[in-house]
C-alpha cells in the first residue's frame, strides 16, 4: 500500500482490463454486486469448517488461496465503486464516523 | 483516494476502532469473512428487484445507501486483510496478472 | 412436515402470494437468486460473532429470529425452483447420490 | 414432491449421510450457515452476467447445473433446520402469514 495513487492506479487498471475485453456492457452495478458476493463466498468457503483458532493459523497454501479470494472480492468492489462514481476511501471514512456514533468506544480504563 | 498512505491510514484507524471497543477477540478471519459477506448482501439487496438499467441510474437517496454498504463491505475486507497480514493493493495487482492470463484481452481491432 | 403434499401446497401458496401482489414480473431466476442470498446472509448475520458453542445453544428469542430467516431463505429457494420447474425433493435426492460418490462413507468400524 | 414424508425422509437421509462420514462435529449452526451461503453463491454465479431474459431461458446444460446448486443449498438449509430442531414447512407457513401482513395483497380488480 506504499505508493501515492496506488488505489487510483488500480481503479484505472481495472477500467482498462474491462475495456480490453469489452466487458463494460456486463458491468452494471447489479451484475457487479452479484459477482462481488460470489467472490466473497469463495472466501467464506475456505473458513466454513475451520475452528476460530484454525482460521487464525492458516497453512501457507490456504493463506495464498485466501489472499487471491480477498483480491478478487476487492477487485469487484473497487470496480463497482468506480462504475457508481464512489471513492472507496472517502466512503469508508464517512461510514466510520457513523459507526463510531452507533458503537461508542469504551472508556479508556475499561479497554 | 488522493493522499499517500490513505489505505494504510484507514487500516490503522480500523485497528484502533476495534481496540477501543475490545472487539479484537471477535475479529478472527472466520468471523470477519462472515461479517463481510453479510455487508456484501446488504449491498446486493439494493439491486435485487432493479432492472440492469435502473441499477445504473440510482436515485440520490439509494445511491447514498449503496455508498454506505460498499463502505461497510470494504471496511470488513480491509480489516480481514489486516488480520491476515495481506496487503490489499499488492494482492489485487498479483491477482490481476493471473486474471489476465485466464482471460486474454481481445485484439485491439476487435474491441 | 407431516402432511402429504405439504411442499406442493407451499409452492402453490407462494405462486398465489406473488400473483396477488403482481410480483411475477420481478421473479426472474436472476432476481430470485439475489433475494435468496440476501435472506441467507440475514441468517448468517445471527451467527457471525458467536462461538461454535454459542451457535448450538441459541437463546429463545434468537432462535425465533433464526427460524424466520431460515423460512425466508427456504421461501425464495422454493419459489426459484418453481419458476425453473425444478422439484426440490427430486433435485436433492439426485444430488445426494452424486455427493455420496464424491465423499464416500467411512467404513462402519471407523465411525 | 409426491410422497408423504418425503421431506422427513430427506432430513433423515441427511442425518445418516453426516453420521456415516463423522461430520456431525462440523455441523454447528454457524458452520452450516456458512456452507449454505457458499452454495447459494454458486447458484448466484450462474446468473451474474445474464440478462433477466436469459435467466428465464437457460440452456439445458446450465439448467442442470443450476438444479444441482439449488439442491446443495436446499440440503444445507434442511440440515441446518434439523440441527436447530426447526420444521421447514411450519416455519415457512408461519413466515408467510407475517409476510402477508407486511405486504398486503392488491385488491382483486387491480391485479
From TrEMBL, chains A, B, C, D:
Coiled coil: none
Protein name: Nucleotide pyrophosphohydrolase
GO terms, molecular function: nucleoside triphosphate diphosphatase activity
InterPro entries the UniProt entry points to: dCTP_Pyrophosphatase, DCTPP
Annotated source species: Denitratisoma oestradiolicum
Keywords recorded for this protein, A-Z: Hydrolase
GO biological process, one term: nucleoside triphosphate catabolic process
Amino acid at each position: 500500500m506504499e505508493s501515492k495513487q496506488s488505489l487510483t492506479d488500480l481503479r484505472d487498471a481495472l477500467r482498462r482490463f474491462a475495456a480490453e475485453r469489452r466487458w463494460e456492457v456486463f458491468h452494471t452495478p447489479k451484475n457487479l454486486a452479484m459477482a462481488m458476493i460470489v467472490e466473497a463466498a469463495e472466501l467464506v468457503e475456505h473458513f466454513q469448517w475451520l475452528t476460530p483458532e484454525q482460521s487464525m493459523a492458516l497453512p501457507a497454501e490456504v493463506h495464498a488461496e485466501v489472499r487471491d479470494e480477498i483480491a478478487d472480492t476487492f477487485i469487484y468492489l473497487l470496480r463497482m465503486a468506480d462504475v457508481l462514481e464512489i471513492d472507496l476511501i472517502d466512503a469508508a471514512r464517512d461510514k466510520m464516523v457513523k459507526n463510531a456514533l452507533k458503537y461508542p468506544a469504551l472508556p479508556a480504563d475499561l479497554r
